[in-house]
Structure formats: structure tokens, C-alpha cells
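sry for the spam today, last one i promise. C-alpha cells for design, 284 residues
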């Protein structure tokens, strides 16, 4: 990779690249400055590269090298999607090491926040800080219901000709509805070189992994010594907000931010406040 290239500052201009490791070609994008500890983004159920809110990516990339990627079997990345969060975490580590990185910050949203917890537990020396949002611990309350809620809201969306994320990520208040429409519009800003949508097989594997995570015995989160910023909306239907409180209570070095009149996608609804908070947290 040519490091003399101009720094990419906008996610919609970040080229999609590939790196091969462990028999998998991982699709990824990177932007922001070339120096410092990179922030690796770990994405949510059914998401591909184009599902990251460009305001959040660009906001963090104004000060940090940001790397987004498709995990195994998702979007443009080859291979078969694991049916466990632990398997996804192992693949994410394979990808991170393939880029030659030895120390990263992790920003995990929803399923990505579950993956981030496992990476911090299994590869503690790799991780400097964690930002986890809309997520919960293994065995967390209501996580095993994600499949049912996702299916229900997908049907609701089909019947009303809307995107399921309008229901899954945002509240049904006027603020929530407006924030959802604005978020979905931002996801369409990139016009060229868009990612492949997730295959149904991969989506089903991810649902199984989240369901298993919800049924697991609670793990000892006191082993995660890194500073952790935990964020969510106050009305998360997918991963109930009490899981965020539970995480913050059980992680030894944590800070909790809860956004009002916001759902699972609280960090996207309050993207300006979230970016400012995350930057302050990462700079400490």
C-alpha cells in the first residue's frame, strides 16, 4: 500500500481495498491521518461497509486513522460467516493483524460491541481503548429476542414500504422518526463503489450468533482493564438499554452516556454529541 497517497478525509471517497489472511479476502476502507493508534470499527447485524453513518466515521477520522471492514462472509469479504460472536472476534483479529497493526482502539456498535468485548478479553495487548454502543454483555437481558424483534420490524417495514432500521434503530416519536429518515439519507451519500448487500445466509448466521450470545453465561468483565466508553439511547428495543447500564457497572474503567428520546441508533441520532464525546475519550 502506498503511504504517500493523499489523506482521505471523507468516508464517501474512501476506496474499498482488500487484504488476504487465513484464506479470506477482507474488504475494508480506511481514512484519516496515517499516524497514531487506529480506530477499527466493528459493525452491526446485517451491516456492510455502507451502513456506517458517514457523520460518525468522518467525525472520528478528522483526528484518527479509521478502518472499517466486512467480517468473514459479509458484503465483499469472502468466506463463510461464523455462527458465534467468538468466531467473528477471531476473524476480526485476523484482519487487524493482516494490516500489520499491533495496537488499536475498537468502536463496536450492537453486534460489533459484542465482538469488541471478546477481542478485549482474548487479545488484551491488541486493544488500547473501547467504544461500545447499543450493545450488551453475554447473557444480557433480552438479547436472545433480537431475532424475533428483527423479523417483526422487517415485516412492519415491508408493510409500510420503509427501511427496517427506521423501526429497529429509532423511537417512534417525531424526533425519532425524523432522525431515522436523516440517518437513512446519509447512508445513501456514497454513490460509487458501493458494497454488496449482506447475503441471507450470512444474516441468518449472525442472528444465530447473537441468539447464542444472549443465552451464554455472563462472563467476567472485570478482566477488561481498558478504558471503555459505553453509549446507547434510552429506549433501545433491540438490545434493551439496561444492558448498557449493566456493562458500565461491570467494567472496571467505564463511562456511560445515554441519549434521551433515542433508540438502538442513539449514536447516529446524536452523532455530533457522540463524536465529540468519543474524541474526548480517545484523546485522554
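last one done:
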Amino acid at each position: 500500500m502506498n503511504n504517500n497517497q493523499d489523506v482521505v478525509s471523507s468516508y464517501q471517497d474512501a476506496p474499498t481495498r482488500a487484504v488476504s489472511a487465513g484464506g479470506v479476502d477482507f474488504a475494508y476502507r480506511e481514512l484519516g491521518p496515517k499516524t497514531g493508534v487506529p480506530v477499527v470499527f466493528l459493525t452491526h447485524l446485517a451491516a456492510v461497509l455502507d451502513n456506517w453513518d458517514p457523520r460518525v466515521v468522518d467525525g472520528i477520522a478528522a483526528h484518527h486513522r479509521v478502518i472499517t471492514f466486512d467480517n468473514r462472509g459479509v458484503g465483499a469479504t469472502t468466506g463463510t460467516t461464523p455462527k458465534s460472536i467468538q468466531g467473528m472476534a477471531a476473524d476480526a483479529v485476523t484482519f487487524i493483524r493482516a494490516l500489520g497493526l499491533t495496537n488499536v482502539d475498537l468502536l463496536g456498535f450492537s453486534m460489533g460491541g459484542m465482538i469488541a468485548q471478546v477481542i478485549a478479553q482474548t487479545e488484551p495487548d491488541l486493544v488500547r481503548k473501547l467504544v461500545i454502543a447499543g450493545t450488551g454483555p453475554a447473557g444480557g437481558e433480552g438479547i436472545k429476542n433480537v431475532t424475533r424483534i428483527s423479523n417483526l420490524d422487517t415485516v412492519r417495514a415491508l408493510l409500510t414500504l420503509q427501511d427496517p432500521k427506521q423501526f429497529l434503530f429509532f423511537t417512534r416519536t417525531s424526533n425519532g422518526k425524523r432522525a431515522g429518515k436523516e440517518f437513512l439519507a446519509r447512508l445513501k451519500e456514497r454513490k460509487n463503489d458501493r458494497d454488496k448487500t449482506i447475503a441471507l445466509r450470512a444474516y441468518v448466521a449472525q442472528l444465530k450468533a447473537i441468539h447464542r450470545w444472549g443465552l451464554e453465561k455472563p462472563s467476567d468483565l472485570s478482566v477488561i482493564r481498558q478504558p471503555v466508553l459505553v453509549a446507547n439511547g434510552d429506549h433501545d428495543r433491540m438490545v434493551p438499554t439496561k444492558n448498557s447500564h449493566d456493562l458500565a457497572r461491570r467494567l472496571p474503567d467505564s463511562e456511560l452516556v445515554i441519549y434521551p428520546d433515542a433508540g438502538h441508533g442513539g449514536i447516529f441520532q446524536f452523532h455530533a454529541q457522540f463524536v465529540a464525546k468519543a474524541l474526548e475519550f480517545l484523546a485522554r
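The domain at 11-283 is CATH 3.40.50.1820 (Rossmann fold). ok im logging off now
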